[in-house]
Amino acid sequence: MASIPYYSSLEEKRPLFANGNEKSFVIDTEEDFDSLLLDLRCFYESHCPVDSIYRGVNNAKFKLYNSAQRHWIRYDLGSKGITYYDFLDNLLKSAKSIPVINHVFNRYGYHEKKSDLPILALLQHYGAPTPCIDWAYTIQSAAYFAIFNQECSYTNSIDDYVSIYRIDKYKHRGELLNSKDWNNGVDLKSFLSLGDQDEHANFCYYLSDYEPNGFSLDSVNDQYPNSCLQIQNGLIQSSIFNQNIIPQDGILVFNPFEDKCLEDMFNIRIYDEGANIDLDPFYCFNIHRRLASHINNVLLAPKHINDDFMFPNMNMIISEIKTRAKIEQ
User: Fold this and answer.
1) Cα 252 to chain center, whole Å?
2) pLDDT tens-digit series, residues 58-94
3) Do 207 and 251 touch, CB atoms closer than 8 A?
């Protein structure tokens, strides 16, 4: 079984991120975190709700590979004569052979290629390896996943830091493509063909029900149609049959490459040989685990964000409703 590449130190990570030489790259105190949070809140108030996305990771050493890449690398599937497309296509075919999944997507009128990415979005949130990686429109969701079930040995090792990442998506409209820009959907094979280029090529694709058709391609001056984050009309891509995506304010970023992590794709300059788009490095905030309790108190608890909120169980929710309504059970 092959090992998945990771960072050996925070210093190794620095050159890949926009704030690598700034104080915000390493957060060691409550005061530093509160200062970061104030800056992020000011940023959020001056931008539209979908301008930036966040991801929380519970160990700072992990590179941003998606679950399909990790599975592909760990089991060295390429050396076994299996193509990346065949690996994922087999997963999709297996999903489509499940009667209830076919039933649900047929009721939405999603046939053939139109259902490929929405089914992958569903599989992503229930433990299957997919070419998606979870991001969120809110810092709260990212922070939850960063500090979830943390233990700390109080060292300065990279293993005692978690990471919160931020992509300022508004800077890349027209480069980070939204699946809603293809109203008839896009099939897995067409999606993965985006990565069939020179080894230096870079490309991203995201799946969201929070953005209207074509919004990702509009100019930065165009306004989001709502004052707060809200599910938009149009081609539903990520929330069909998926009760986790909404409380998590989720957006899925698809990476068509079998072995290139996301931060590497944002560090290829347009003048490099084979590069197809110019993506600036994004932000990484590495936060010591000892701040987990503080983060929960100032950021998550006030919004009632916990396990039950992020992973809703409808049977338990209905039971709670009946208890509050004093209905005998």
Assistant:
1) 5
2) 999 999 999 999 999 999 998 998 999 999 999 999 9
3) yes
